[in-house]
Amino acid sequence: MTPIFRRKAPRTPQDRLVTLIRKPGCHLCDDAQAVVEKVCGELGVPWEGKDITEDPRLHDQYWEQIPVVLVDGEQHTFWRVNEERLRKALA
Hints:
Protein name: Redoxin
CATH architecture: 3-Layer(aba) Sandwich
Order of helices and strands: EHEHEEH
Structural class: alpha+beta
Organism: Streptomyces lincolnensis
Helix content: 25-40%
Number of domains: 1
CATH superfamily: Glutaredoxin
CATH class: Alpha Beta
């Protein structure tokens, strides 16, 4: 009997989504956005920004960690975004 091992189909960059959770006036958030814009732009991955001051749920969940980066809805990092690590997560 052959074991069933299924490989996940490779995702295209357009199937991915990076979310940057931030707040206005946050210099770490500005730094994180620069990295997210660069990496996502180079890889063709869409990204979105969310402001914790406009979403009580995000505020309650992440206010001590911002900026927070989610990759495909799962927390990838917080405070400082490492370009190489983000690139590897999206590869």
